[in-house]
Amino acid sequence: QVPLTQSGGGSVQAGKSLTLYCAVPGRIFDVVAAGWFRQVPGKQREMVAHITTDGLTSYDDSVKGRFTISKNSAGTSVYLQMDSLKPEDTAVYYCNADPTSAGVPGRYWGQGSPVTVIS
Fold it and tell me: CA-CA distance, 115 to 38, in Å (whole number)?
């Protein structure tokens, strides 16, 4: 088991920013990629941001230019900076360890962080 502990999220007005945090008990993100997924009721969980062990990033078109995924130098935390938030960004966001760049999730998930964007 790899525990991923999330923090951050909450409710915010459209156009504002939020940051999500994901911590692991070791330098896991030095050896596997990380991703942030989101899910709304009735829909599948989808990946919105991905970062490789080398720090290369990729984004879903819906968040490109507004969201930034990063990690710390120790490989123990991954972040999702969300700017210019829109009501359609409202979802539960999940951190995932070792997803593929195509969006196939790895085995381990964070507990989820609800994000609500109010118009």
Answer: 9
Alpha-helix runs per DSSP H in 18-80: none
The residue type found at 62 is S
- What lies within 8 Å, CB to CB, of 63 at 6+ separation is 48, 49, 82, 89
- Round to whole Å and give the CA distance between 17 and 1: 32
State the Cα angle at 10 between 29 and 119, rounded to 5°. Answer: 125
pLDDT, tens digit, for every residue of 43-77?
999 999 999 999 999 999 999 999 999 999 999 99
Residue whose structure tokens are 């381990």: 108
What are phi and psi for residue 39, nearest 5 degrees? Answer: -145, 135
Interval 68-92 mean pLDDT = 97
